[in-house]
Amino acid sequence: MNIPGNHRETAETRQRKAHLVGGGIAAMAAAAYLIRDGGLLGPNINIYEEGEVFGGCLDGISMAEKGYVNRGERMFEPNYVCMFDLLSFIPSIDDPKKSIKQDILEYAEAFHWNNKARLVDSEGKITNFRELGFNERDRLDMIALTSTPESFYNDKRINDVFTGHFFETNFWYIWQSTFGFEPWHSAIEMRRYMLRFLHMFPSMPTQAGIFRTNYNQYDTIIRPLKNWLVSQGVQFVSRTRVVDIDLGIVPEVFTASRIMMIRDGQDVIVEVAPQDIVIATIGSMVADSSLGSNTTAPQVKRTQSSGAFALWETIAEGRERLGRPSVFSGNIDHANWESFTVTTRDPHFFDRMEKFTGNLTGRNGMVTLKDSSWLITLSLYSQPHYIDQPDDVFVWWGYGLYTDKIGDYVKKPMYQCTGDEILEETIRQLKWDEDLDRIRNASRVIPCMMPHITSMFLARKAGDRPHVVPEGSTNFGVIGQFVEVPDDVVFTVEYSVRTAQTAVFKLLGLEKKPNPFPRVSNDLKVVWNAFQAMH
Question: How far apart are CA 296 and CA 420, in angstroms?
């Protein structure tokens, strides 16, 4: 494929260096735009990552014998314009003549969703999930939420806006299991989601219009993106924890001059010239994640050990324009959920699910066990889900949203359960007790506890999140899921890439803005279709 070049390379850009803190998709996207649009040379771009593996939450651990691991999964839709812009100039992992964007869209065409089993009840039966279940009060509350200015909902929770009936509707079961919302999460973010995805209301039950990647997101997105960046000379520096950034002594002015880090146990200071730029990822959804096994439960880490929040707390101290990290890092009881990845050489579970749902594997979307106390949701991917996955190995994934609740069959909170116990709860919710031993004996189950996975959903107010390039900054920006981008929604790859575009274009003074996304809530046809879907 032809990769677009840039026409901005000058003597200044050849000398300018960029230091990117955090090895996730936001920083990697920033590196790509620094090269394509900013004219920086790859060898002058450093990406610092605390761990061994780059990619942040877009991970995928390949262990055919011990069991594969997806901490989470991402769904996509055509209006992710920033993400698709990035992926339009990065070659595919399977065919370098094609872009990742082409790969994903071709896969979406081949494996489009038409979910026939979105919700399953306590009897193991598929419900009439196409009926969203609103009453008139629910509809009025939704109209009020989306039509009232965002500032009215500062520090308000979703359950401050809706009554009890709303949380018993099929819409809420579908909504929260699709996006990860819980009643105590931010009403501001709920409002943004409703406006951003209003066009999807009619297809929300069947999930038509949503799609996945052909492999897990590490193999489909991160691996080829990293390969391209390496080919450009970008320096990937692992096992390096950035602990502080010297931004000067004047609280209203931000000029990064030094970066303090610990690399392989040794203190390191990197000097930053005035013409250089520093872009830091603040906060992390997957900070302090831990894995279990068939026979062990994952550890719940209540004391922060990850550097992403610690760095934010350090640089924000005394600097109001850098936000309030404690709003997002201090309440894991309202921010955690737990996923589990199942690896098996027996296709029986897949066969049963195809027969039960009426969907071929890969076309079925998500299946939520709506009455389960943990609110278990399952996803069966088209196979292979990993690029190195053998033909006789099958991988599926699930998660539970309410990890502190006692299981309906395994009488323990989910966070205390082993992989075998989580699988038992799942199979018995489906009423497949006669198949439990066969499925369990053939399965490697790796649970993953993520204490901060929805921390960016916690109730907030204006000023809690810093702007990408804070007022007064000369060469410093922040990116990721915990910065402020007006109107757009977090917990998406789109948001991370949008912050990367914003940081690069502003700090380099480019006459360019991030790709605008369609304001679907301004389209009268979209509004009418959504209104009809609510009745």
Answer: 9
Query: 11 exposed, middle or buried (CB, 10 Å; 0-12, 13-18, 19+)?
Result: exposed
Task: Categorize the per-residue pLDDT at 364 as very low, low, confident or very high, splitting at 50, 70 and 90.
Answer: confident
Read off the pLDDT band of 416 (50, 70, 90): very high
Rounded CA gap, 308 and 284, in Å? 6
Q: Where are the beta strands (DSSP E) in 231-300?
A: 235-237, 240-246, 258-263, 266-271, 277-281, 290-291
pLDDT band at 7 (very low <50, low <70, confident <90, very high): very low
Higher-pLDDT residue of 403, 251: 403
The pLDDT confidence band at residue 1, using thresholds 50, 70 and 90, is low
Count up the domains in the chain and report the number.
2
Other beta carbons less than 10 A from residue 392's beta carbon: 10
Angle at CA of residue 288, ends 283 and 293, nearest 5°: 145
Residue whose pair of structure tokens reads 């999964």 in the numeric block: 73
pLDDT of residue 4: 54
Judged by DSSP in three states, 428 sits in: helix
Cβ proximity of 403 and 376 under 8 Å: no
Please check whether residue 439 is in contact with residue 428, taking contact to mean a CB–CB distance below 8 angstroms.
no
Residue 128 has a CB neighbour count (10 Å cut-off) of 9
Q: Which two tokens stand for residue 338?
A: 């737990």
For residue 236, being part of any structural domain is answered with yes
Which pLDDT score is estimated for 225? Answer: 98
* 30 and 163 housed in the same domain: no
What domain range includes position 242?
11-61+74-104+215-287+301-323+461-507
- Residue 425 makes CB contacts below 8 A (sequence gap 6+) with 372, 374, 376, 407, 408, 409, 410, 414, 417
87 and 178 both lie in a single domain: no
Question: 392: Cβ–Cβ under 8 A, 6 or more apart, which residues?
Answer: 345
Q: Is the Cβ–Cβ distance between 290 and 449 less than 8 Å?
A: yes
Sheet hosting strand 258-263, strand order edge to edge: 240-246, 258-263, 266-271
* CATH number of the CATH domain containing 38: 3.50.50.60
Q: Which of 52, 13, 55 is nearest to 34 (CA)?
A: 13
Distance of alpha carbon 227 from alpha carbon 18, whole angstroms: 19
Considering all CA atoms of the chain, what is the largest pairwise distance in Å, rounded to the nearest integer? Answer: 71
Q: What is the pLDDT of residue 177?
A: 98
* Least confident range of 7-21, 76-90, 174-188, 449-463: 7-21
CB 282 within 8 A of CB 245: no
Residue with tokens 């909170």: 413
Q: Give yes or no for residue 302 having a pLDDT over 90.
A: no
